[in-house]
């Protein structure tokens, strides 16, 4: 019978969900995700790797990721006043909500609307998790031995860190 313990050179499939500690988590940030990787070969945050090594298939783990390893500190310089006429959809700007659009150059623009008045908006361009711990709820869905094809696919992705 195959050992279902998370260890290097095994393919791990896990489901996870993120939360922001101490504040409401936007739905787009908290949506459930699933990922597979070759442990010890594919890139993975060390704090997550340390938390899952030794866990068994089916086990659930909660990891608290500090701001400096997640989205960094809150930067008050990223709160800026901008003119509403610079935005494609100024009618969609609502205080306390996130506004987003794609710029003419194809860049994603997103910010939290702090205030809106006199044709201007106070926009917070910090990531919602900046300055906060990120809580990662993990479930180990599958642990299996890596095959030659798994190693080859990993090499094709230029892996080697982790």
UniProtKB/TrEMBL annotation:
It catalyses: [protein]-peptidylproline (omega=180) = [protein]-peptidylproline (omega=0). Its EC number is 5.2.1.8. One of its GO terms (cellular component) is cytoplasm. The keyword Isomerase applies. It is found in: Cytoplasm. Pfam families: FKBP_C. Also involved in hydrogenase metallocenter assembly, probably by participating in the nickel insertion step. This function in hydrogenase biosynthesis requires chaperone activity and the presence of the metal-binding domain, but not PPIase activity. This is Peptidyl-prolyl cis-trans isomerase.
